[in-house]
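Sat 14:20. Reprocessing the chain from the morning session after the first attempt stalled halfway. Input below, unchanged.
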Amino acid sequence: MVEWSNQYVLGVCSMDETHKEFVRILNNAIAAVNNSDFYEHCQEILHHTYNHFEGERLMMVDCGVSSRQDHIVEHNRVLAEMEHMFARPKEAKKYVMEGIPAWFHTHATTLDSELARAILEKQKT
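Finished this time. Tokens:
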């Protein structure tokens, strides 16, 4: 399970709420890893992530964050990886329990943190 902590609070309400929702959805999938509805949870992760990334893309365009292209490339890589892994039952379980949590931690505390700083800086002007 992924425990929500202050390290994930970025100070941009929409990002923080989206990330909290992502953690909730991910934890539901982790809890269901041995249940018959596990793959429905995987699809919920994928659907949420598509919407999540589109929202961030729009924020990046709006605030002109310098790392926008790298961030978008990372989003595309993760979406492709999720689709690939969710199509493989054995790999999907490990990916949900280990891969996604590790990715989320790194992504939220690096690229998303940078985006949040850019948004907050733009709000000051």
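The mean pLDDT is 95.
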